[in-house]
Structures are given as C-alpha cells and as structure tokens.
C-alpha cells in the first residue's frame, strides 16, 4: 500500500469542532433576539464577499466559522427568532436539532427497507402514532390498507396525491400513455400555489384546474364546486381530484371537509386535504374539529416542520389506500431488487414519493414527540392559539386597526383603516427596522397584514411588543404625513 | 401573562446532550467496522420493539438515546462503513456533518432570496465554484444566462429537466393545456429508473419513452438514437428530450456525449446529463474526459452526496438557460411577493425546483470544499479509482472470476464463472455474514456482482479484505456442494 495522505477531519478535531458548534447554536438561540429578524442586506452583498473560486488547499474550521459569523450572519433572516411572524413558521427545537444531527451522523439512505430497516420501521411507527395523536381515521394506519410516509414538503405531498388520483381515475393508463388533457381538478381560489404547480407538473394543465370561489369566511363554496363538476361532466371532461385546505396560507381559512368529502364520494374524485401548518392544532382535543370530515379523504398531509417543533424538512403524508400510491410511483430496476422487497413483507418508501433516495427524517420527529411528550406539544399549540386570539382582541379593540378575516387559530389577518398604501408602508417600515418580521396578503383587493404566531419560543410578551411596535409605527407614519 | 410551563429543552441541557451526541457520532465512526454492514434484522423486528402510541409525558434524552442504541442500531445498514460497496455510496464526512448541523441550528427556510439572502447567495457562489472545479462550460454559471441550484436528488433534477424540456418544446403550452401524448423522450436501456419515473410524472407516458439499445460498452448507440428520432418524426410525434448518462448505476457506463449532443442540436432536443455519482471524478484533470461534450448540454446534474463527502441530500443541477427552468416552475401568489423578488435582482430558488420550501444545504457543501480543499477532494477520488482498478486487476488475474463490463472509474462489475445461481448465492452468503455489503445487477441476462468503491473512509486494505472474503466464500460454497 502506498504512503497515504490524510485530508479527513480527525476524530479529535470532529469532537472539538462539533462541541464548539453545539455551543455556537446554543449561543445563537440565547441571542437570536438581538439580530434584525429580516436580513437587511442588499442583493449581492453576501456573494461579493465570497471568493470566486474554491480553495485548492484545506482551510481550517476556525477560518470557516469566522466567515460564517462575519459574512453569512448579516444575510440570515432569523426564522428561529420568537419575533418571526411572517409566512408560516418553520420552527425547530432542541430535540429536533439533535435528531437531525444523529441522522446526519448515521448517514443512512433509506430508499429501501433493506438499506436500513430502522429508518423504515421507525418512520412507520411514528406516523401511526400521529394517526392517534390527530385522531385520524384508522384507514391511514400502516396496519390497514393505508399508511403514511415522510416527504420533504406539502408541495411534494400534493404532487404525489395528484399523481395517485390521476392514475386511479385513468386505470393507470396515464403513466403508460401520457396525459390526455381531459382530466379536471378542483381547488378553491385560496388554495396554496403548490397545487397549481402540481397540476402543471403532472401534465394536467392549468386550464384544467378550477379555482372555486369562496364564501365570506374564505372557505370553498361547495354549491359552486358541485355545479362546476356537473358542467365539466356535461362538457365530456373527467373530474378526478379535489384539494381541500385546512388553514389556508393566505388567511387560515378552513374548507368544509364533510361537504367536500360527500361530493368527492358522489362523483368518485380523489379528496386530498392540505393542512400544512394548521393540522398540528388537531393534536389538541378542543381544536380537533378542524379535521372533521377527514374520514372521507383519500389523502391528508401536514408539516411538523411548520408548527410541531421539528425542523425543516418534515411533511407527513397519509393515504387511505397505499396500493394506489405505490402502483403510481413504483419502479423496480434490477439493481434495487432484494429479498426483503420480493417477500412483500416490507415497505420500500422510495415507492411512496418522487425521489429515490431519502434521509432518516423520522429520528427528529421521534425525538420531538418523545422529548416534549404529547402534552408538552399540546401546551405550546394551545399557548400560540391563545396568544393569537389575544392579539386579535387587541386589534378589534383598537380604533385604528381591524381584523379582516376569521382567525380560527394562530394566524390573524388585519389592517389599518388608512388603506392599502398605508398598510404596505407600515409593513415595510416595521420589517426594515428589524425588531419583528411579518408579511402580507391580499383579500378582495385589499392589502392585508398577517401575524402568524407559531415560532417555538414565541410567548405573549413577544406578541405584546409586536403589537406595540405596530401601533407606534403607524402613529409615527401618520405624524410624518 | 399567565403562569407559564416549560417543556422546551433548556440551553444547558441542549449543550450537554449536543456534546454527548457529537461524541456518540465520533465513537460511531471509530467503531463502525464492528457492526455487520448490512443489517441482519427481519421485517417487523424493529417496529415490534417500539410502543404503539406516543408518550403523553416528556421522556429524557438519555432514555431516547438508550433506545437508539438498543432498538435502532441493530436495524441500521451502515452506509458510512468503509466496507459498504453496495449501490452507490452516500458518503459523509466531518465537515459535512458540521455544516448540516449548522443548517439545522439556523433553521433557515430559503424559499426566497429575502427569507435568507445568505442561503441563496452562498448556494449560487458555491455552485459557480463547481463549474470551475468540474471544468463545466461557463454557460452554467450564474453570471451567464444559466445557473445552478441544489436539489435533493438526481431524480428531482431529472424531473425538473424533463419539465423544462417539455415546456420549451411546447412553447409553455403544456403547463396551460396539459400533455398531449405526442412528445417523445430518449434514454438508453441502461439509464437510471428515475428517468422513467420522471416521464410518467410529467404526463409524457412510458410508451413515449424510447429505450435505445447499447453497444458492447453498455453505452447508448447513437446510430440507433438518430434512427429512432427519425422514425418518430415520420410518425408525426415530437421528440423533445434525451438523457445521457455518465456512469450508469448498473455498470458505470458512459454514453457518448459529443455524438448525443450533436444529435440534440440537429433535432432541437433538450440534452440532460445525469452524472449522479461519477460526475465528481471530473474534479480530477485526468478524469475530466468523462464530461467531454457537456458543453452541448442544456442541463447537467451530479450528487456531492454520493462521492464528494457531503451527506445526503445534495444534488447539484446546472442549466444553460435559467429562464426556461424558471418560466416552467415559477408560481408567485400574493403572500410570497416582496421587494427583492419584484426588483428582478435576485434568484428565488423555489422557482428552480418542485418544492417551495428549502433547507440551507449549501453550508455543508461549502464546509466540505473548504475543509478538504480541492486538492484534498481530488486525492480521495484518485485513491478510490486507483483501488477500484487494483480490484479489477485482482479479478482479472483470478482463474475463477472475471470482470464483465468496462470499469472506467470506481465501480467494478464481475462474476464467478460458476454462473448465475452461484453468484446469487455468493452475494447473499457474504452479505448475510455482515463483513461487507455489495449488490448486484443483470447484464445480458447474467447475474453480476458490483463493487462500488467510494465510501469516505474506504482504503486499499478494506478492498483487499473484501476480495479475500469474496474468494474465500466462493471456495467454501464450492466445497459444500
């Protein structure tokens, strides 16, 4: 054997640097409120500080971490700040970071049961736990004809549901012959953009996606849904899929699941439920009502990486009939064949989603559920909703602001009475000051502010200060005018 | 404010548990050769040890880690063992685990430039580094009309390329009107199964995927490719896409890129190159020849998570014209609008792939390239190829075994002369003994053994022992008969 060089990090160095990194992260969380929540850099500011070519020779971790601190940190928008109220949360927690670290360390690629049985079986077990925790119907359990899988995002889960629906409706002929441009899907005008993206990807075509109008609560109008289905049938088209939303991204609107489910059964359409953020609320018995009707669904998905303290990415996708999903997405080339797969006694999760390879993502979810306990998780969800409702009360009791959409859970849409331009100015002024970060939407042509309360460490005090900042900034803007 | 409970892990506990986890991982790597490489558990063994319901009350990290050790570890197949020669490697390294840990800790969701400018700009910069490192054409750089993005896997990159090709060919009408069943794609009979999956997902249909036969080197026959294209044109179909492979999964075959590229230009087809594992070899000047012809490609992808010491998931996807990709995958609902996006001065990477949300994956890649240095990375790639060629020599000089496919890089396909049943028995016997793990493929009806050498810590001694194990086990099987 020839004389060997060594460029690998030694075990001693890994221990030293790893422990420093753990301290770095702990320090970061202790100090996260000192950073501007929304990064204040300009396009190119970060890139221009990074060399244009890779180093030929090894650089030390100390040097790299020094660049993290001086170059990268100013370009971070702090999703883990308790003053982050933008979009939906993408929250994390101690046990989640540790579970993800273990996953990185083990470096397991769980595409097949055989490539790490624990990766598949822990995932199956933890997802069965969630069926109980969310009081989902038993048909979504691995012990029934259904089952569940961890995907990266609700977008991928939505695409998987569209594909399974497409194949079930066309007797698996689209996979063979291609789309025919006659399938029609239904969502509400408030449904997340990922559904439109999925419909395009699947070759269905945006023109075959019906955006059903919503009622005063911004929920899908089922009378219009059924009318549209009937019109499409009369036109010789083939309705195949409906996505119902529990907690829309824009306003947290909840579609009427029982009515949509009955229509889906009547016309034999696949019913998918996207409960990306809000699904987590159903672990609390008093909020479980948001999922009433889920027993009629063919598939259901929610993201522990949004509001269940499990860091991105972790979407849980449940199906009532796993055979449809597997038949839709399964490919078995020779080089992946193995005894366990051939026995039929195992799940090979690569047949349950778009990708082939997969991380050991159930570890972080398992760590979180066990370390918090279901009661611990419930406590924070209840707190976040309580605080959001408190915020809504403050807004309602203000003479200058109003709540402009139902706020059933942890997202409050509100606006200053001074109109669109003022609200836009208010948002930009507050976000560029860095004390808090929130975002907007548009409802009925009106520019609307969104406060989404779900970051792991957000408590009442953070929201109280946010409300003070919003009021104070509004007053300052009015005085300047 | 009401009396608050606390179920969050404290900062002190996180520091303590995190440092223990770092030691756990370091210990694991020091001892990984003591585990059977392929897990020896039976279906259900792991799941049956896990409780059927989630705990209501918090459990300690010590308790959880105790279950990791006693329940999960027997069900791990050790991808990070230097005796892992199966499939393709999915390797990791110290700097990669640390970069991934930092990503988990920061908990950044980089869907838009604004949601963490550093997440986007570091990614752009590091991918530009790779253009230089692999000597890719400048058109793949962010400073040209092209650019690159980190995706999860080569499967998703392949799907993205199929979609962009579909839209370019149909003038973006398929996104609107759906597939029409007249587009045709071309791959070789050796192309990875993810391409067939992508063609199905995209609504093109498997019947419109031509599997072009291969030559004696298992590379695509371009005379047959052109003939097939002409036949399809004469039949009124619309050829739109070719995937060329550099290092096929089955045997590491390399398709003739220049000839395929010329055909793609002649017939205006999108040329995608899948170099999932083998692309990394091109960082070594002496192996750069494998990418000759890449200058003709519309897109190119390879996986640092396979052979570049960066843990799963990390696929790098390069496109020559980013506007096609973005136009294909872009969706801009109101709630994602922001000043930076509207300025057009930034990349919003969620428009470059299927998903909306995304991790800060460039951190681990940046850590790896900087901590190894390009010369450090080259050293191990050169070593792996040298050892694989050494292994091939040993096989060739044996009277009982033969090399059965060209072995241009780090994958050697070989077989015992005793035929299919014997080789299958040999593989299963060795894998169930646990000292090493390798897998098989089928070439021309023959069951063939694959030794893929690319795990981070694999050195000549591991491969020498593997060869001894293979020879010895074969002899024992012959004597038993």
SSE map:
Two copies of one chain form a homodimer.
Chain A: H1 11-31, H2 61-72, H3 94-106, H4 117-133, E1 147-151, H5 154-169, H6 174-177, E2 183-188, H7 193-201, E3 209-212, H8 222-234, E4 238-245, H9 257-267, E5 270-274, E6 299-302, H10 304-307, E7 315-319, H11 322-329, H12 339-343, H13 362-396, E8 401-403, E9 411-416, H14 420-433, E10 439-443, E11 446-452, H15 460-480
Parallel strand pairs in A: 2-3, 2-4, 4-5, 5-6
Antiparallel strand pairs in A: 1-7, 6-7, 8-9, 9-11, 10-11
Helix pairs in contact in A: 3-13, 4-13, 5-7, 5-11, 8-9, 13-15, 14-15
Please provide a written account of the structure.
Two copies of one chain form a homodimer. Chain A is of the alpha/beta class and 481 residues long. The first copy, chain A, has a domain of 269 residues: Aspartate Aminotransferase, domain 2, CATH 3.40.640.10. The first copy, chain A, is built from 15 helices and eleven strands. In chain A, strands 1-7-6-5-4-2-3 form a seven-stranded mixed β-sheet, with helices on both faces. A four-stranded antiparallel β-sheet of chain A has the order 8-9-11-10. In chain A, strand 4, helix 9 and strand 5 form a beta-alpha-beta unit. In chain A, helix 13 packs across helix 15 and helix 14 crosses helix 15. The radius of gyration of chain A is 24 Å and the shape is globular. At the A-B interface, helix 1, helix 2, helix 3, helix 4 and helix 5 of A face helix 1, helix 2, helix 3, helix 4 and helix 5 of B.
